[in-house]
Write a structure and sequence with these properties.
This protein is α+β, with helices and mostly antiparallel strands. Helices cover 13% and strands 28% of the residues.
């Protein structure tokens, strides 16, 4: 059975019904992690710019020419890729025809598996031939060249179509005949049915120059337009020779400087030669002077001598030239460099198509038709597939750089889904290739969420510290998963903010969306060979070249993409014994006590030693060194987003839950665990972790005969953590930072781990105090009748102040508000809202006293509220007036804690008396909008943003059911049409209507989110109308089974949201089993149908957050181990506002920056809302 057949059978198995009932969960996409089979090798085509620029003298290239260095670097990089990739090489044509006939590319090395034999006998000899003949006319293109034909002929090669110039310009002595069906005008495609699903890459190596560059011609433009037309599409941007808006290129600013360039001092060895003239024996001095070569000195003439050609007793003497030291010679050279401006050039790209081809290859791909028996029934049928190509570019130069070229190559990589590098030395070229190839062969199997802590110097900013929770599902569906918490940072690379590691180098692999092989998270230390003998499967040997060279493949450093390595997990593992840890629980009297004291309640000392790390679990090898025995001491962080609290200038503590049973407090300065807490409700789950059995029952996967006792995965404190924190005002009123911490209360939740909310006082971070817990245990025992209807606690307890609640002896009084939670009735896999949920738990909104946990108010809703409550503080005084709520059935509600009794339209400030607080007994919930039908769900919280100067509230929310991630689930099989909605509402108008009502029982008119008051994006407005005539807009998600995965964020006048689609696109036999994530951005007030941007690595995206942070320059040198950002005065870097999480870990800059009057102030981080 070939790879395609195995893939189709695997996908079919995912669609089979279970023989037992299993709850659907978002982790079901990882059910395939028990499959250890390997996929087809990736195809890597090097495209080498062999123009005259590769040997330009003005570049002052060290050690020969750029072309020589490029050939050597490719050869060195490929020597470490044996058996890992298929590889080929394309170059410009060099012989025959006109200059334009050489614009096309020929295949120098056919794409084949890089075996040792292929490397030794084909690849290496071809690269050596290039290196040795850089100036040869058959290796070097001899005139100015456009770049659009290189990706065009890559397209032709992969498609098996005609070469762009019908083979004219192809050097017959150098082209690989295996790459052609007709020499040299028709390519033979290297693709086949056995590897049609393999990833394909172009690594372009370009040689920069300081002169003008040639634009692409009409023929190239027409070819690209025809390729789009064949796919049923039109080119989205203006192409070369056309009018209109081209694909924007990153803008680079040219900087020229004069630099004195000196040659090296040279030593020339002594040598002899026969004099050219004839001398008498008494003229040896004259001989020494006359015959001494230019630049030499102290020459002498002596015997032996010859008489040939001499007369009159004259002889030709031997001239002795002693060893010479030639001093350096210097000359002034103009050095041309460019700097990224951080802006985009929206005009220059009209001349060039290379980046447009890269965009097409990445977004649309190469059509390929093949005959294959995919079902194994003996019938071969034709199948059509689009093979997408990812582009990496390496910009090679030393002293001369052209802004348009660098911008074009940056744009090609950006549009092509890869990465752009600059290289000023052979070492830098090699590093760029090693990073690119490392990205290509890497795989990720993890998930993450992020948070950033509050800045001490500016309360509207966060510190440049990015904390990421992660996990790795175990092979064989084992229940004990590795997890970790790691710290990274942001840095600028070519003007673009990206996630960086401890050395300020780019941390993220653009193909997997996870850290690169050589990335080093902060806190991580070298442990030499810690992981070598532990039998971890899959193996955790680093593929980082520097680690391999230093024999550190099994060290924690670099931790790269491995969840197990580094981070908090390593800091715990390095402890001498479990006794060094502070592990707590709470007793029946409500006192925090040592976990050991309750060991008898959860299985005895063995289970305690396992939890503490002194004893390994079943199916786990013990570490035999002088630190903790248990390698898996840190479990998976699946849904629990880390929460950070700033205590003072030097202290940040991170709080989060993991599914190893512990809720943790971690010191952000070094990653050390301050303490861990186990809830009594979770005691019964610890034995399964220790036993590593029974295995996990995933929905959509048949339970193996040998595992009939499979059970759903256990969770613990897996939900979001709420926060109520208060800082004193700074002593200096002019200080923009925060004052001393007054108090800090946190509220962990459990998600599928249970129906409890806990309250802790962590004002003293090393001495947590138990405040209260509310809810019910798994047996249905509740803390009181006020909480009997509480469901699984999925909603973040939001810390707020409400004016008319003066309780708990505080002024103002801390209050929390959260949704009623999730009910298991929602696990039923059907499109229609289950009738079983008529009596569901979680139907309502709770408001609690933050200190006592007493219920102050319960607001009923029609269906469970599992998402966060969006609160609004219109006048930014720290007291909320409104809250917005979504239930899973598709209803939107507004809670009024205060009223606006005057229109705010046109006001720049809010006058006294406009906001009137409601008494506690008059707090009111009212339904304001709902969706028609019963097949869509609101699993995400609404985003509510006050609009400046008019008193309106923009409410944005998307539909989806992230607990149904498979193609066998209802959103896909029933093809539920999920949507995104944006509602503009004005609370003042409702107050006015209520005041004017004469019935005494006023009810708000509920807006139909798809009715006549809402405009569908993509449809024309009625005559004479525009968006101002509507109460909002909505749009359809374009793909089958696609659903909004997380809450949206609003910034810079746009609303950002991300989605998830099970499997792949319909009819795509290569669809990813973990699905497709996409990011969308829509202009809030001028909305158009957006194009989704596919997120690297696939899977369910992480929730987006908006941050304002100071970002320094990153390091792009070959050695960044001692790098420090350069700045005139601390703090370093530019202040930027952007989004992390909308497109993976990419930082999407917002321009214009968010108005601080309508943006959340980050006293509390934007927490997990799932």
């Amino acid at each position: 059975m070939n790879y395609l057949q195995m893939k189709k059978v695997g996908l079919a198995l995912l669609g089979l019904a279970l023989s037992i009932v299993v709850s659907a969960e978002d982790i079901d996409i990882f059910a395939g992690t028990s499959d250890t089979g390997s996929a087809a090798l990736p195809n890597v085509v090097f495209v080498l710019d062999n123009s005259a620029n590769w040997s330009r003298i003005g570049q002052q290239w060290p050690d020969g020419t750029q072309g020589e260095s490029e050939a050597r670097a490719i050869k060195a990089a490929l020597s470490n890729m044996i058996g890992k990739i298929n590889v080929g090489l394309m170059m410009y044509g060099t012989t025959g025809g006109s200059s334009s006939d050489k614009d096309g590319a020929y295949t120098r090395i056919d794409v084949q598996e890089l075996t040792q034999d292929y490397f030794d006998n084909v690849v290496a000899p071809a690269l050596t031939r290039i290196e040795d003949n850089i100036e040869s006319s058959d290796e070097k293109r001899d005139s100015s060249n456009p770049y659009g034909y290189l990706p065009y002929d890559l397209y032709n090669y992969l498609k098996g179509d005609n070469q762009s110039k019908n083979g004219i310009g192809t050097p017959a002595n150098l082209a690989d005949a295996n790459a052609y069906t007709s020499q040299w005008n028709t390519f033979s495609s290297p693709l086949s049915s056995t590897d049609i699903c393999a990833d394909t890459y172009m690594i372009f190596i370009g040689n920069n120059t300081n002169g003008s560059i040639a634009g692409d011609d009409t023929a190239n433009t027409n070819a690209l337009k025809a390729a789009y037309a064949e796919a049923g599409l039109t080119a989205p941007n203006a192409l070369a020779g056309e009018s209109g808006a081209p694909l924007p290129m990153p803008e680079f600013i040219t900087v020229e400087t004069e630099e004195e360039v000196c040659s090296d001092e040279q030593t020339v060895a002594s040598y002899d030669f026969t004099s050219a003239a004839c001398y008498r024996s008494n003229q040896l001095g004259d001989c020494a002077v006359d015959e001494c070569p230019a630049g030499a000195s102290n020459c002498s003439c002596s015997s032996p001598a010859v008489s040939s050609g001499c007369k009159n007793n004259r002889l030709k003497y031997t001239v002795n030239v002693p060893a010479q030291v030639i001093p350096p010679t210097c000359q002034d050279v103009t050095v041309t460099e460019i700097q990224a401006s951080g802006e985009f050039d929206t005009s220059s790209g009209i001349s060039y198509n290379m980046d447009d081809w890269s965009k097409f290859l990445f977004n649309v791909g190469v059509p390929y038709t093949f005959n294959e028996d995919l079902d194994g029934d003996g019938i071969y049928e034709a199948h059509n597939q689009r093979v997408k190509v990812i582009t990496y570019t390496v910009d090679v130069f030393n002293k001369q750089q052209q802004a348009d070229l660098s911008g074009l190559w940056f744009s090609a990589a950006n549009a092509g889904g890869g990465q752009y590098f600059q290289a000023k030395s052979e070492e830098a070229i090699l590093k760029a290739l090693e990073i690119s190839l490392g990205d290509i062969v890497a795989k990720a199997s993890s998930f993450a969420a992020v948070t950033l802590p509050l800045s001490t110097t500016n309360r509207t900013q966060v510190e440049n510290e990015v904390y990421i929770g992660m996990f790795r599902p175990e092979l064989g569906k084992a229940p004990r998963w590795y997890g970790n918490l790691k710290r990274y940072q942001l840095a600028l690379f070519n003007g673009v903010a990206e996630l960086a590691d401890a050395d300020f180098t780019q941390a993220i692999n653009s193909q997997t969306g996870f850290p690169r092989d050589c990335a080093k998270s902060l806190w991580t230390e070298d442990t030499i060979d810690y992981w070598e003998s532990l039998g971890i499967n899959p193996p955790v040997a680093s593929a980082c070249g520097t680690a391999i060279e230093a024999s550190r493949e099994y060290s924690d450093l670099p931790d790269g993409p491995f969840v197990e390595k580094g981070g908090v997990g390593q800091r715990i593992r390095l402890l001498a014994s479990g006794a060094a840890r502070n592990l707590y629980t709470v007793n029946s009297a409500g006192a925090i006590i040592d976990l050991f004291d309750e060991a008898a309640s959860f299985g005895g000392t063995d289970i305690f030693d396992f939890m503490a790390g002194d004893l390994q679990g079943a199916n786990e090898a013990a570490y035999l060194g002088d630190t903790l025995a248990r390698p898996s001491v840190h479990g998976d962080v699946v849904h629990s987003r880390p929460l950070s609290i700033r205590y003072d200038d030097d202290t940040v503590i991170i709080f989060y839950g993991a599914n190893d049973g512990l809720f943790r407090a971690v010191d952000a300065s070094n990653g050390s665990e301050r303490w861990g807490f186990v809830a009594p409700e979770h005691y019964g789950k610890l034995q399964r972790l220790y036993d590593d059995d029974p295995v996990i029952a995933f929905e959509g996967v048949l339970v193996d005969a040998e595992d009939p006792d499979a059970e759903p995965k256990d969770y613990f404190f897996d939900g979001p953590t709420g926060l109520h924190v208060k800082y004193d005002d700074p002593v200096d009123p002019a200080d923009s930072g925060v004052g001393e911490l007054d108090y800090a209360y946190i509220f962990p939740t459990m998600r599928r781990g249970g129906r409890m909310v806990y309250g802790f006082d962590v004002t003293i971070p090393d001495s947590p105090l138990f405040l209260w817990k509310q809810g019910c245990d798994d047996a249905g025992n509740c803390t009181g009748t006020d909480f009997a209807s509480l469901g699984q606690t999925w909603s973040t307890p939001q810390g707020v102040f409400i004016a008319e609640y003066p309780g708990n002896d505080a002024d103002p009084a801390p209050v929390i508000i959260f949704g009623g939670g999730y009910d298991a009735c929602l696990d039923i896999d059907q499109a229609a809202y289950p009738t079983e949920c008529d009596s569901a738990k979680g139907k309502g909104v709770y408001v609690l006293d933050a200190l006592s946990g007493a219920r102050l108010k319960w607001f009923p809703t029609d269906a469970p509220v599992m998402s966060d409550i969006a609160t609004v503080d219109i006048n930014v005084d720290g007291v909320i007036e409104l809250a917005y709520v979504a239930d899973v059935k598709g209803n939107l509600y507004r809670i009024r804690f205060a009223d606006y009794v005057q229109s705010l339209v046109g006001l720049t400030t809010i006058p006294d008396g406009v906001i009137v607080d409601r008494e506690q007994g008059d707090w009111r919930i009212e339904k304001i909008a709902s969706m028609p039908g019963n097949t869509r769900r609101f699993y995400n919280s609404p985003t509510a943003s006050p609009l400046p100067t008019n008193g309106q509230i923009a409410v944005a929310i998307g539909t989806g059911d992230r607990e149904r991630p498979l193609e066998s689930n209802y959103p896909y099989t029933a093809d539920v049409q999920n949507r995104f909605y944006a509602l503009i509402e004005e609370p003042y108008l409702d107050w006015q209507e209520e005041e004017d009502s004469t019935t005494g029982s006023w009810e708000r008119t509920v807006v139909d989110l798809e009715g006549e008051d809402m405009h569908q994006i993509g449809t024309p407005f009625p005559d004479g109308e525009n968006l101002q005539n509507f109460k909002g807009w909505w749009l359809d998600l374009p793909n089958q089974g696609e659903q909004v995965a997380n809450p949206a964020v609003v910034g810079g006048g746009r609303v950002f949201f991300n989605t998830f689609q099970p499997g792949g696109a319909p009819g795509d036999i290569c669809g990813s089993p973990i699905g497709i994530g996409r990011g969308y951005a829509v202009d809030f007030f001028n909305p158009e149908v957006p194009t989704g941007q596919e997120i690297d690595g696939g899977g369910i995206p992480i929730p987006p957050i908006v941050v304002t942070v100071r970002i320094p320059e990153g390091c792009t040198a070959t050695d960044c181990s001692n790098y420090e950002p350069v700045c005139e005065t601390p703090p370093c870097g530019e202040v930027r506002t952007g989004i992390i999480g909308w497109d993976g870990f990419s930082f999407e800059q917002l321009d214009p920056a968010i108005n601080p009057q309508i943006r959340r102030v980050f006293f509390t981080e934007d927490l997990e809302r799932q």
